Amino acid sequence: MQQKPDYIIAGAGLVGSLLGLRLAQRGFRVKLYESRSDMRKADISAGRSINLALSDRGIRSLELVGLKQEMLQHAVPMQGRMVHDVGGNLQFQPYSERPGEHINSISRRTLNVILMDALEKMQPDAITFNTELSSLDFQNFESVFQSRNGERFMHQNIPLLATDGANSVARKELMRISPLIRFNYAQNFQNYGYKELTIPPAEDGSFRIHDHSLHIWPRGHFMMIALPNPDATFTATLFLPYEGKESFAVLQTEESVTDFYSKYFADSMPHIPALTKEFFEHPTGHLYTVKCHPWYYQDQLQLLGDAAHAIIPFYGQGMNCGFEDVFVLDQLMDQKLSGEELFQKFTDSRKINSDAIADLAEDNFIEMRDKVGDPVFQRKRALENRLEKFDPSYFSKYALVTFRPDVSYHHAMTLGRMQDELLMQICSSGEEINDASLPEILLKLKKLTLENSE
Ligand SMILES: Cc1cc2nc3c(=O)[nH]c(=O)nc-3n(C[C@H](O)[C@H](O)[C@H](O)COP(=O)(O)OP(=O)(O)OC[C@H]3O[C@@H](n4cnc5c(N)ncnc54)[C@H](O)[C@@H]3O)c2cc1C
């Protein structure tokens, strides 16, 4: 007879698989149910984007489960943003001046497969595919799963960890009992969709555009980005309003798409040979933020990852934040917390931080599509790089969020915003900033840090 699991996990996506693996390493028996088929056996999409930017918060969690090196072998380092203006001129903006600080482009599928393989190595029957969480009965502490072939699985008195993504069924079940737990829920849809397109390798198999960069074509109220893959392809993503003068609504014919690209992204066109085909064949993805609270019910249910806090992708932090959830839960387990106390402490510690990164991601959308091309912003970014080079103990807001997992998202946001305000003031004055003025600026920045310690 199979041993009764200690935890049930709904969703074997990125966060669920990492969570399952970590709990197995801690000696727990886990049972995961995944609504899709096994991506290792069927050629199905791994989900919402083809590749992702993995950075230090996510890497710290992968290190916890012993998979850091293996994952990084499959990643392409991105040292900075390569900004393409309308005329095709390029400007490189490094992410950091400290050696080793970069982000990593990695395939969602590769990440997910390595995590699932590692989990199944420890517990071969841990994941059941084609089976979804269908309902929760809080009165009887029961979770119900339904397979595609009509089988039902019910578990009683076993805590459910819900990592079933942005459209979480577990979260909807909490909504159902919202008067009982005063459940708050907010969903903020962007008026933007996204479309993924492929930049294939050059004829000689090399990358067509600079390989160690995240490419951005900022165009004010819309933009395109491209992240490299190890096979010398890039996945480009167009972010565009649904309606309006330049929007998905007006791009209804091959001719309109070609005209739009010739006008705004001309330098990219030779690199996207299947532009019109992919534009009409690939689905348009939606972008939205989800905030909710509380993330748990007694000792029965805990939401984690996008189920608790879906954010828009413009800081490259959604998965990193979900991976950090696993790291924090693990730390709390080290403190011997369990049951409702564990869930409550976890929620208290994570909610403030996931709200912060959600807000930062919304700010960064404006920065990426609009400000990276703005001269004052470019001066500020260049000044930040000079400051980091002059005094490596100074971290810009971007660096705090991306390279400093020891600093919470909330602190990175509050301190980073103050730093930004000060530097934008300095850069908008138009005055020449020579090396002699750097110590004085750093002193002001240090003062902000001291006044706002975590
Ligand atoms: C375009 C785009 C680009 C992004 N880029 C980045 C990036 O660069 N860096 C970054 O850190 N993040 C990025 N993100 C965010 C990242 O994709 C998510 O934060 C991450 O996937 C969340 O992981 P998750 O496991 O919580 O949810 P998901 O990855 O959505 O996994 C949920 C899993 O649950 C399964 N499931 C759903 N419902 C049920 C059910 N009822 N029962 C059982 N299983 C179920 C799903 O099939 C899925 O496998 C991006 C997102 C988008 C949309």
Through-space gap between termini: 50 Å
Count of β-strands: 19
CATH first level of the domain at 7-51 and 108-186 and 290-364: which class?
Answer: Alpha Beta
Helix/sheet category: alpha/beta
**Reported CATH architecture of the domain at 7-51 and 108-186 and 290-364:** 3-Layer(bba) Sandwich
- DSSP helical segment count: 15
Biggest sheet descriptor: 7 strands, mixed
Task: Give keywords.
454 residues; alpha/beta; FAD/NAD(P)-binding domain; 7-stranded mixed β-sheet; 6-stranded mixed β-sheet; 15 helices; 23% strand; binds flavin-adenine dinucleotide
Give a brief description.
With 454 residues, the protein is an alpha/beta fold.
Describe it:
This protein is α/β, with parallel strands linked by helices and 454 residues long. Among the domains are: 7-51 and 108-186 and 290-364, FAD/NAD(P)-binding domain; 374-451, no CATH class. Helices cover 40% and strands 23% of the residues. It has 15 helices and 19 strands. The protein has helices at 14-25, 56-64, 68-73, 108-122, 169-176, 178-181, 254-264, 275-281, 306-309, 318-334, 339-369, 375-390, 397-403, 409-428, 438-451, and strands at residues 7-10, 30-33, 51-54, 76-78, 80-84, 90-94, 103-107, 127-128, 131-137, 142-147, 152-156, 160-162, 184-199, 213-218, 223-228, 234-241, 285-293, 296-297, 301-303. A 7-stranded mixed beta sheet has the order 6-5-14-15-16-13-17, with helices on both faces. Strand 5 and strand 6 (90-94) form a beta hairpin. 39% of the residues are buried. The structure holds flavin-adenine dinucleotide (FAD). Flavin-adenine dinucleotide (FAD) binds next to helix 1, strand 3, strand 9 and helix 10.
